[in-house]
Design brief:
heterodimer; A: 212 residues; mainly alpha; Butyryl-CoA Dehydrogenase, subunit A, domain 3; three-stranded antiparallel beta sheet; 9% strand; B: 702 residues; 4 domains; seven-stranded mixed beta sheet; seven-stranded mixed β-barrel; 17 helices; 43% helix; membrane (chain A); transmembrane (chain A)
Amino acid sequence: MDRARHSEEALTARAAGLVGCRACGCVSPVGTATCRRCGARLDPVHALSLQRVWAWMLAGLICYIPANLYPMLRTATVGSTPAENTILGGVVELVHAGEWAIALIVFSASVLVPIGKFIAIAVLALSLRAHATLSSHRRHRLLEIMEFIGRWSMVDVFVVAILSSLVQLGFVVQIHPGPAAALFALSVAFTMLAAQSFDPRLIWEKDQGPQA
Amino acid sequence: MNDDPDLPLTPARPDQTVSAPGLMSRISVVWVVPLVALVVSLGVAWKTFQDRGVPIQIAFSDAAGLVPGQSVLKYRQVVVGKVEKVGFTNDLTATLVTVRLDKEMAPYIDKDARFWVVQPQIGFSGISGLDTVLSGVFIEGLWDKTFTGPAPAVFTGLNREPLGAPPGSGSWVRLTAPDGGSLIEGAPVLYRGITVGQLRDLRVNETGDGVVIDAFIKAPYDKRLTTSSLFWNTSGFSVSLGPSGVKLNVRSLSSLIQGGVEFDTPVSGGQPVRRGEAFALFDDETTARDSIFADTTETRVALSIYLDGSVRGLKTGDPVNLSGVKVGEITSIGIDTLPAPGGSQSVVQRVDFAVTPERLGLAAGADRADVLAFLSDEVAQKNLRARVASAGLLGGSLVVDLVSVENAPPALLEIDAKPNPVIPSTAPEISDFTASAEGVITRLNALPIEQVMDSAISLLDSTTKLIGQDDTQKAPGALLALIADARGVIAAPDLQAAPAALRGALEETQKFMADLNSAGTVGSVGGAMDRASAAADAVTASVEGVPRLVETLTGLGEKANALPLDEITRNAADLTATLNRLAGSEEMAALPAALSQSLDALSVMLKDLQAGGATGNLNETLGSARKAADAVAEASARLPQLSEKLEATIRDLDGVLASYGARSDFNTETVATLRQLRTTAASFDTLVRMLQRNPQSLILGR
């Protein structure tokens, strides 16, 4: 309720005929090309930014699907045929091995977080169009969380990178990254770009836009 | 910004330049990214789908160790597929393994493709499939490029690795044997001791009266196989006791445990084998090699002999020898009745045998008539007879020998006899081993061993007693003492002083005689000459005694030589040392001088006599002279000996001095013992005499 009230009272830069710099926060009159203070490019808020969000998210999603189908790790240990593990397969194996904690970390970093991110981005993007049930503050909060947590999705990629560079014991054990590792890294990168290209100003301006 | 202060506080609303709503401005360029991602993903998916192999299904009796998604299909040890699914056939009689075969291999799979599960196997002939221990069980496939027919929907997997599957890798033959012996599946096939193949699929034949074994011989050894090859069982080991003694034959350890089959092609002329050519499997090598001559294609001539006496031990298959070489073998032994001279019938043993013409030395291709003609000649002219003889180490086995018997009663080959021509036989020569052994033992018993033993024992007892007697053991010591005595006697200073005195005396005598001559008293000279002659006779007589003494001493020396030399030599050395001291002593040196003086006195006395011219007492003087001459003779009798001993003493002395050196202790002690020696010399003398009288007493200890 409190926040709702805040939103009612706040004056947006757009309403004031200004455009805020996303880099340093300095406001400039609408139409200014570059920030007066830091020289960054000033983007007027327009619908294209939302398109970028959708595009990046879609790219991330496209990469995410094969990233889950293809093997993430190729493990060759002595005494067994080379094993290939997909992300979920690895989680299942960890669960079978009784490593619940690690399984939980891998699962959350590789499955929960990316999927949550997709959903969050989609919700945010959709909420700008239709009549949102979420308040602007909640949406902003969601964006912050998404940005913060999104980087942790790279944990899985790092694990693969570290394992495959460290565990090269020749005949005994060899670990190679599978095609899914690259796809997953791309997917994470794309969703991060999607989150990045989501302009938080849209959240507020949507509320006030009609009034202006 | 607007500087006008009158303007309201509401910010100015600058004109927004709205660009033309072009397509490019309305659609973000970022959309390219998901499009590219989509295209790439679809492309990858398509490629994956395209590269997906061809599924084939193989039915195995069991799928031990096959894991879906992990187990692989290998072709010549290269992975060409992966097991996708392990299930069952509809009727649950076999497992159905679905393998995703690599795309590029798929065209080569035809109906002749064979699949088997490779599992680690540890057998007597080695370990195989060891790689599966680490990598897990896998399926091995085998196919070739030639297309033989469309692949079946479900392949039937083999239970074990097929042998010789690639053409040219070996040959398959089929062995038949009365029983499987100790052969087992996978037992080796040997060629001259080298494993060249394997036995497979041992099974009882269709009629159930024998076994059939498939044998695979690897290339290039299968080149040695012809239709005339022989196969025999080398299982376990064989001990044979034959004329050449005991023979132990063991092939490889592997064949000892799991059995084995060896083959060889001893005769040429065989045809190349076809696949599955049948061979008989012989029990052992000897049987196999003998079978060459038992070949049914060869001509064999059946003959018989009749044996009067009962001969036990002859059996079918025993050899028939001519000049010690096998020419045939006994085919049957039976009983026949023959008309006896008295009109009655007598029962005899009939032995049938067959001979091979080639082995008789006849030309190849000789037929029955040739053989009979040859034998007929031999029987009629060279008295060839058949005889049962014993063979082997103990004479346990019997053979039929065809030998020429001298002075045999004339006989002929009964060519027309039924059923076979009969060779006349002669008395068997069967060595009775038991009888011989008994004879030997009887003769051994007859030997007077006990008497000999008794005599020997008593002899040994006597010897022991003799040796054990105190006297016997004392003898060497006594002899040593004797030698010492003898030395003592010889070394007596009186003796040593004698020579110089003797010389003086002789010179005086000479002078005296000269004087007598010159004195011109011819009248009395005759008498004097007689006396002198008598004196000379006395000298001669006494000199005659010398050789005996020398002999005695020599004998003594010989005995001494035979005695324990160490001690004797040591004592002798001591003695000589003593003597040396004695000789070197002042007393000794003075002794000759004293003697010389006394002789000088004699000379003076004689000169006085000469000067006095008292012819009257010449006789007396001559008597004295004769006495002196006697003394001289006595002394001279011992002279040669003495000089000898002195020489020996000096020789010994040198050695002793060399070894002992100038040790004052030794010298003083020697001087001390010298005196003791002198005192005991007398008693030694008696001992010497006693010995001369009765030498045997020394030996016999009495």
